[in-house]
User: Fold these one by one.
Assistant:
Number 1:
Amino acid sequence: MVAPPDNDVLRAHGLHHTHGATVALTDVSLDVREGEIFAVSGPRGSGKTTLLKCLSGQLVPTQGEIWFNGSPVHTLSSPSRERLRLDRFGWIDTEPHLVPELSAWENAALPLLLRGAGHRAAKHTAIEWLERLDVGMCARRRPGRLDQSQRQRVAIARALVTTPQVLFADEPTAPLHSADGTQVLRTLTTAARSHHITVVLATYDPKVAALADRTIALLDGRRSGAVPETAGASDEESRAACSLSV
Amino acid sequence: MLALRLARGTHPLVLLRRLLVTAAAAGTGFLVLAALGHAAAHPATAGDSLARLLWCTAPLAATAQLAVSMARTDPAARLQRGMAAAGLGPFRLTLLAATSTALFCALGVLLSLVVFLALRGDLGTAASGTATGSRAIDSGLLGAGHPLPWIGALMLISVIPLTAAVATAFSLRPRTEAGAVDTDTPSTTEAPSGLPWGVALAAAGLAIEAYTSPAAGAAGELLPLSGRLIGSPPGILAGWALAAIGLVLAGPGLVYLSGQLLCAGRPGALRLLSGRVLQEESHRLGRPLGVLCAVASGVYAAGVLHQAAPSRPLGPFTAIGAAVVLACVTVSALSSALESRAARARSTATLRRLGASAFVLHRATALRATALVLVLGPLTWTVAEMATLPLVH
């Protein structure tokens, strides 16, 4: 067992995962550096979602190791993995799965409330994030009365409200119209850059993958050749230049 | 045929749930047949027999409610997508659900017919020998020795599967806007409107009862059980019925109110989740819980009256009827809770993905249950006490 290098926030080694009889991941290794936007690209069914779920501790890989901040995730018990998700990780789904009973701001504030934050502070932070993501005006509405892009923004606010260390986004723009998708993605990446949040982004869209600092490609559950770092994108200065004040 | 084939392939546990409907239908069928047997044995007191038959509407309604709630939570209904791919639209699916309900009820009713005939001693000497030996009272009560009008008996018991099937079809009828179960139904944020009506009806019922109840000391003649129906004045029965309908109507509003109380002030995650869910689910949970409260208050009131006048023993038919009604409404309330859990499966998964622990979710459920008990329990008790007050004092 090799101790992971210090600047890797997430590191996976030799991941295998099977859903019943279906092989979803075969020998996938990767490392995610702190503060970068890391894209996992591949067509549908290539194992992107399974990989993200393994990395975020929602699934335990059948084989292989996952390290977060130098400590193992794959050996943690289920309650400690839940705790880790709540404290350190954010998750954005393909579909904005909001709790339909709660209003937009309550949805966004939910992770804070679950962590035990006070009602007033949680509300204040949640509404701040909703305003940054241009959905401040519908903070009091229920998800049923929002359109899809508004709901996805609320879901993003919910993922960002705790300023997690790593944000997992599983095809966050797939259900949106292209203009909405571009804007949502831009707000997501700028927010991540300005708050120094590491993002692991699954996508089938090469245009989305182009926004990332590094990309790996998956095909049929295997890495199909690593794409080298996008020229200049990992450069600290250009990163600062494209970060808006979100 | 498809209904039969589906029934044959279902999971044993699901089949067990369906068999509850069969058991309820069997109990109701037996009561109906017993009323018929009474009529055959005592042609002179037709009014009494009619009253017995009318009392069978309570178990009949409870059976129909149980059948509907079982059909709503039937996993087969959740296979809609696969069925739609196979060319079975929402209309035919409704028919399928109604048919399988009728099938299971018919099974129960036939069972009750066999038991009834065996107890009467109509099924040959061996059966009658054991039956009359062990249940001599029953065979007398069932009108043994008097010929049974066959057409009438079959028509009467066929009412049970028909009612259940029609109720199922009506409850599951395809709605124009929401075709499938899994579409995001727009969340209904407004409070249910039945609460004022329910309170008004319950109050009116209790008032009518208090107004028409005769002087003290007559409680022994009042107990409206099927044995002495003729003696119980219609005013009191109408009052009880109105109060029960009021409780049923007020159910959703009361559940909503409990939810509102739970998340009043500045709630944390736990109170927020449990309260809002209760408000949202009040439409689904409220009716069966209201029915449960109404039946519970009725049973409580009957128990108090029975204690006030213990001279009258509890007849077997009253016991069967009460058991059927109680079991049906309890199971319906439980199954509506299951239905709401299934409907909320997606948001539960969302919460788990956020990192909410199972412990938090269990505590939220426990909090919801406690709030419901705290709001509905005292209310049921109050209604029951007020219903018995003019009769025992």
Number 2:
Amino acid sequence: MHRDTYFRGVREGIPVMLGYFVVSVTIGIAARKANLTTAQAAFMSLTNLTSAGQFASFAIIASGAPYLEMLISQAVINLRYCLMSCALSQKVDTNLPFRHRLIMAFGITDEIFGLSIRQKGKLDPWYCYGVMTVAIPGWTLGTVLGILSTGAMPDNILNAMNMAIYGMFIAVFMPAARDNKILLPIIFVSMGASALFHALPFFDFISSGMKIIILTLVISMAAALLFPVDEEGGSQA
Amino acid sequence: MRNYIYILVMALTTYFIRVIPLTIFRKEITNKTFRSFLTYVPYVTLSVMTFPAILEITDSVWIAWVGFLTAMVLAYNRVSLFIVSLGCCGLVLLLQMI
């Protein structure tokens, strides 16, 4: 039972692995510019698993800023994982042992979260482990390749592999919109607001990680107040 | 050495953010508004992350739009995640080569 779930995670994790590979190649290239060694870059990717956080870290490392600055910047940039962790806490069985929570938490990324939350019923941690099994090596090896090569991969292949991640995101939120009619307008409002935030120069002072958090908090809260979800059955978002 | 300390600070900070809610909220949250909020979070956050970022995957905006709309239509019609993801990946590759 766990075994099947685990291998389903491995299979569904393959698009994540491809996408991670591409993004982490660019991470590796940035790491070299910040004068990190191959071992350091690989160690960072293996232990952090966060694209925005790692990109931001290079400027801090290169400038020799205080460790506290690193702590604060990572906390702010990665705050959305905190929201995702809250959502996952309600998705797992209430009796799920502590050790599983500790291991699962390590794999909370945008993509692994997206896949996990779309599982039917309660989330089996073995599904997450399956995704992590392919995603984490993809992320780490891509970083190593990036630091060793000078962008040897042709651009059009890298672009296409990037599409895999977004295709996966869309495959997570769109099918649910078909079952729950309130979700479709919420999705379009979210995209519209995000485009507006992106386009208006007035918001340039907010980092992209912060924009995601602000939009998520405001829109989800508004949706919760306007369209409270009925317990089991009614609205199955 | 200093670089390794930076990396450890990063890793620990990020891990704490990820692990705290999952280990603290060990019961079902009963507050209806908060539950609804958490229900909507994944859809809102993934939508916000997808758009408009997806339009910047290639130099050609129209290829990105084709990829985006194809994925939206396929996913809405419950085509499997694997096919939506890798199919659009292949489509974008193909369009770029034309």
